[in-house]
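Follow-up to my earlier ticket, as requested here are the two runs.
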Amino acid sequence: MGKSLKPLMTQALPPGEYREKLVDLFFVKFQSRLDMQQLLDLAIPIYDKYLSHEEVRGLIEFYQTPLGQKTLKVLPTMLTELQEAGRKWGENLGRDSMREVLAEHPDLAKALEGAAKTAQPH
């Protein structure tokens, strides 16, 4: 978890010499408070809600195979990359959609421009 979250957390903080030490200390504190039983107590009812006992046993068998082991290894990194790719895709889609709407409706573009000017501090 630290491998995938550490870069994201570091990027989320303003640059500075403090940043690496803060992130490292955060993960030390986080891991010291981590109680796996609490996580299991949260996870079991959710697994129960969506998967049968047989399906869970099938997953256990799968994760014991070489492909299952590889999946466990690469899935956190894959999910991080997918999340970032989806964020960028959504950002671009939103920006392009707004540009098209403003190009199709010049009155709204003018209103937005006027609102932006009045919102700026003088």
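Run two:
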Amino acid sequence: MAVPYDLSKLVIFAVSPLGTALVLGVLGLVMRGFTRERGAQRACTALVALALGWLWLWSTPAVSDWLRQRVEAPYPGLRSEALPRADAIVVLGGAMSPPTSIDPYPDLSDAADRVWFAARVFEAGKAPFVLASGGNSPGFVPEAESIRMLLADLGVPADRVLLESRSRTTRENAEFSAPLLRQHKVRTILLVTSALHMRRATLEFERIGMKVIPAATDYGHPEPPGVERWLPKADALDVSGKAMKEVVGAWAVQLRGAGTPVRAAEGPSH
């Protein structure tokens, strides 16, 4: 059963280092307010200290770099020319924010490397077309549309780009892309996404019956050696949260049965 979108976001927050620290810290403070027994108060104080220590640990570049590198390590970077051929290139959203009334163009994030690399892979002749997968919140331009705009700027012809514009999660990326891929008789895809995201994305596309060739990009860059690697930084906490999300998300896909193709990938499209 699919987890509702808003609930999934709450779960993701709860398992993030920031979410876990807040839950532990608030729990410790609330429990301390309801007990007068000295031993229990000390335990509550220790719980608050644990929350602060947990937050500090995952806020340090040394620890966040370690976790990110462990998640990215199975997917070393390859030049587009070194990749094998496939039936299609699939590039996943999460790379930009939609145009607004203030800015008529998409706002590119660090993950926009995904779109640039997809264009490079297409230019290298590795597949006949690109499928851009990504929706948005209601009322906003689907990200797939923005991806097509950027791909065109990078030289990919519009008639070589297919759009899947409803998905808002990695699971939906795969399941909503399945009919389009099936319609074009696609069996093998070059999956373009961030190295940090590749494990979970690969599992989801394998579930719809695709043979996946990882085409990873958007690698992290470790903090230079020095004492600053052990000083808390907001950016490091953000990286830790994203990496933790991918680890837990991959486990969740495997628990659902990653190797079993879902029904959406079966049979002809009508």
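The only thing I checked on run two: Residues 263-270 have pLDDT under 50 and may be disordered. Let me know what else you need.
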